[in-house]
Amino acid sequence: xxxxxxxxxxxxxxxxxxxAGSLSGAARSLGVTHxxxxxxxxxxxxxxxxxxxxxxxxxxALTQAGEEMRDSVIxxxxxxxxxxxxxxxxxxxxxxxxxxTTTDLLAVGVLPRHVAAFRAxxxxxxxxxxxxxTVLDLTRREADVALRIGNPGxxxxxxxxxGRLAFAAYGAADRPPGDPAEGDWIGYGSAHGPLSRNLARxxxxxxxxxxxxxxxxxxxxxxxxxxxxxxxxxxxxxxPSLIRAAALPEDFMxxxxxxxxxxxxxxxxxxxxxxxxxxxxxxxADLLEGRCPCRTRPAQA
Length: 301
What we know:
- By secondary structure, this protein is α/β, with parallel strands linked by helices.
- The protein folds into three domains: 2-89, Orthogonal Bundle (Arc Repressor Mutant, subunit A); 96-156 and 264-283, D-Maltodextrin-Binding Protein, domain 2 (3-Layer(aba) Sandwich), CATH 3.40.190.10; 165-253, D-Maltodextrin-Binding Protein, domain 2, CATH 3.40.190.10.
- The protein has eleven helices and eleven strands.
- It has helices spanning 2-20, 23-30, 34-48, 64-89, 104-109, 111-121, 193-202, 215-223, 233-236, 268-283, 285-288; strands spanning 53-56, 59-62, 96-102, 125-131, 145-149, 157-172, 184-187, 207-211, 228-232, 242-247, 253-261.
- α1 (2-20) crosses α3 and α2 crosses α3.
- The longest helix is centred in the first third of the chain and has 26 residues, at 64-89.
- The protein is globular.
- The relative contact order is 0.14.
């Protein structure tokens, strides 16, 4: 059994290098050091008696033997992942860990108090939150649950729309009134596509003097007066250092989704979390959709 476990560890390491194309990328994905990957790949090739990678100036490229092994290892990985999902899906104990992947916006502005309430009710369930702008692969168990803006529509995922996020234009509380089209703006560049595209359409001549791919960073910039920012009401409405400068045209909102792999739908802790969050976010509808009762300042015309 120990030998078999070591073999699978070596195959996982080989696959990480094949996917990353470099030792450093594989090391980051596996949470080990560059030197560990270098040493173990060398030992693995020596044990097999075959060269799996060409060492090139730009990284590690698969040899023909390496390409054949990669295809086989991917099939093994898919079988192991499918088995793990089926086994986990039969777990009816309200214990264990739930790994949630989400964006910085939702990790800061939506999740914390609901996680605290969930943990108070189910203290034997632990929560791990992975903040990532890209959607982690739920089919490969990189996470158990995704809380996302928008539904990626993968066939193997089960999605539940749990709310809508309203946005508005916000500036520092001491900002003088004025036409948003004539003010300085914090933009998102190519990030947050639907929001960025609509901002460019609504205010095509607005000066974007500061850009970031992070809504949390835009929030921080707006607070200190860098410029106006299109922010979710769930974060900005309850911040006394910000004020609504303008509503976004067309009552702009984005859908909020909870996603899991279909094989996990019968897992007790996952089902408990999904039901809890769906109820909690439904109760948050006024906050999420910009009708926040905790606003301390009236919106400017």
